[in-house]
Design goal:
Elements lengths: L1 E2 L8 E4 L5 E4 L5 E5 L2 E8 L9 H20 L1 H4 L6 E6 L5 E7 L12 E4 L3 E5 L1
């Protein structure tokens, strides 16, 4: 288990709009690891009420990246694309939103997207 100061045990590499790669070690307010893989991410809002919810967006993008990585690169998940990640965001109002992130061959035959489901919001996004 990692807390806010502890980053994930590996880097994420992202490409910007100019196709330049940048790497960073993601970290969340709480991360539960199993075999060095994040299985649960938790973020608590750290922005003011009138500011965008950057923590939530960052957590969802990190989770989507992790799901894609595990399903594409790890032998135990590659065949059936079975990696699932749970993400929890606690809003400024104290409400908790649980997201279940996975790839679904039935909804996306090419597995180009990660589906993000929420108990409260239904299917909110495809990343």
């Amino acid at each position: 288990m990692a807390r806010g100061e502890d980053p994930w045990p590996f880097l994420i590499v992202v490409r910007d709009v100019n196709k330049v790669c940048h790497s960073y070690k993601p970290k969340n307010d709480l991360t539960v690891l199993k075999y060095s893989l994040p299985w649960l991410l938790l973020e608590v809002n750290s922005t003011k009420p009138d500011e965008p919810q950057h923590d939530e967006y960052r957590m969802l993008l990190q989770g989507a990246s992790m799901v894609r990585f595990a399903n594409e690169c790890l032998k135990s998940y590659k065949a059936n694309k079975g990696f699932t990640l749970i993400a929890v965001y606690i809003s400024i109002d104290g409400e908790a939103y649980r997201y279940i992130m996975y790839q679904d061959r039935g909804r996306d035959p090419n597995l180009e997207r990660v589906l993000i489901g929420s108990d409260d919001l239904g299917w909110i996004s495809h990343v």
